[in-house]
Amino acid sequence: MLGDKSPQVMGIINVTPDSFSDGGEHNTVSKAVQGALNMVNEGVHWLDVGGESTRPGASVVSEQQELDRVIPVIQALKQQTSTPISIDTSKAAVMKEAVSAGASMINDVCALQQDGALKAAKDCNVPVCLMHMQGKPQTMQLAPSYENVVDEVFAFLIDRAKACIDIGIANSNILFDPGFGFGKNSNHNYHLLRNLTIFSSKGNKVLVGMSRKRMIGEVTQRDNDNRVAGSVAAATLAMHCGAHIIRVHDVPQTMDALKVFNAFKYGVDNK
Ligand code: PT1
Predict the structure, then answer these.
(1) CA 112–ligand 1 middle distance (angstroms)
(2) Is-contact 101 75, C-beta < 8 A?
(3) Distance (Å, rounded) from C-alpha 212 to C-alpha 181?
(4) pLDDT at residue 227 is higher than 70
(5) Cβ distance 146 to 155 under 8 Å?
(6) Class of CATH domain 8-266
(7) 17 close to ligand 1 (CB < 6 Angstrom)
(8) How many CB atoms lie within 10 A of CB 56?
(9) Which end of the chain is more exposed for a tag (fewer CB within 10 A), N or C?
């Protein structure tokens, strides 16, 4: 069936206060839930809920703050939709609480390297996405450097998968993400995209996130709010290069691209 082969779209739900917030979390939480339900209406396959920004230069948040943001959102979404929820976190306690509240995937940009994360993920017994990052969000874009970016990123992911398998996580529950924009310049990013198939060569599903990132802004010369078309183009290329899950801000536009991609790849079913 097409559903088994078709790429899936994951909508980004940032539970981080915007500049208009008064510092309380209530407004932030209700806006996030509303945004997620709009994506569900557009047919999104996954909702990725995160309470800590990891974009270049972002600051860290405490465990309690992250819990206060993401748990109410996951609880509210569980009541209102059956669309599966992924938790975007690197903290063991947040993984555990989020999965207890109903999240069914862990998305960790630190690839389970933080204290207790490997054990927490194993105990949660849900799929985990391992992502590659060179450095830390605060400084990772200062001087990204590789001999061979594809080989180095893949070797890191294989190494982290081995740590997962050693603790008892099945390889079929391990997804790989090359980590676009995480300690990589645009040439590194496009080189990884061009070589994406290597990341599924050990049987892992591949998740990618390029939506509205600098790799889109740099080549289109557009600011953050005007990167939708470039992002959809990158998403479509990722589908063509074998990505299984595409993490995006702009769900309706990416769903259209997915329909065009599926028609291109599998033909149109005229009943
Ligand atoms: C990602 C990702 C993520 N990206 C996964 N999770 C972010 N699995 C958060 C820029 O260059 O790609 N995969 N969670 C957001 N991080 C960034 C990084 C945002 C770089 C923007 C940039 O502009």
Answers:
(1) 16
(2) yes
(3) 11
(4) yes
(5) no
(6) alpha beta
(7) no
(8) 17
(9) C
